[in-house]
Amino acid sequence: EVQLVESGGGVVQPGGSLRLSCAASGFTFDDYAMHWVRQAPGKGLEWVSLISGDGGSTYYADSVKGRFTISRDNSKNSLYLQMNSLRTEDTALYYCAKVAGYDAFDIWGQGTMVTVSS
Amino acid sequence: SYVLTQPPSVSVAPGQTARITCGGNNIGSKSVHWYQQKPGQAPVLVVYDDSDRPSGIPERFSGSNSGNTATLTISRVEAGDEADYYCQVWDSSSDHPDVVFGGGTKLTVL
Predict the structure, then answer these.
(1) What tens digit of pLDDT does each residue of A70-98 get?
(2) Which of chain A's residues have a Cβ under 8 Å away from the Cβ of B37?
(3) What is the pLDDT of residues B11-29, one digit of tens each?
(4) Do B45 and A103 touch (CB under 8 A)?
(5) Which strands make up the sheet holding A78-83, listed edge to edge?
């Protein structure tokens, strides 16, 4: 079964850091680009970051550029998001998502909640 | 940056047809994907590349895209279709690829 399982969320103070993880199974992980997408409580979906299958290319939304770093370890079938200098507006449910060959997100994890609050 | 505009809400009676629009500048030149999200659940892809359906998605879900508007059509609406729906495109107009989501439409089945 194709599956993505996120972990690492929690409550952190403004200015703090957090590292999210996403464990993938059921598909050839390094064949696919992976993304992080977030959803603030009661709000819509917001794309956060993308990493290519080999990890050589990364891209970020302007709202997180310079603060967040996406990475992957293909030997562990895992995706990561290092979040630094967190702001209250980063409070959201963070999903990892796999892109299908036709560039749509065909598989999503269940999400991990990040709350930035003093 | 590229903007996708969806109506906040659409209401339809069971058995009728729901149409959810997604507006964007010359969106007809892009591939549009649609996601369904029920409360407390992750999004699910229901239409990709304007009008194709992933396996397991009922034929009642269809899509079209032309000019400045893409449309998700749900025929013979059922109570279980009540959810938030999001359109999504890739925008390559800047120096890096960008994933853009519409603001979402809440479908209410009366």
Answers:
(1) 999 999 999 999 999 999 999 999 999 99
(2) 45
(3) 999 999 999 999 999 999 9
(4) no
(5) A3-7, A18-25, A78-83, A68-73
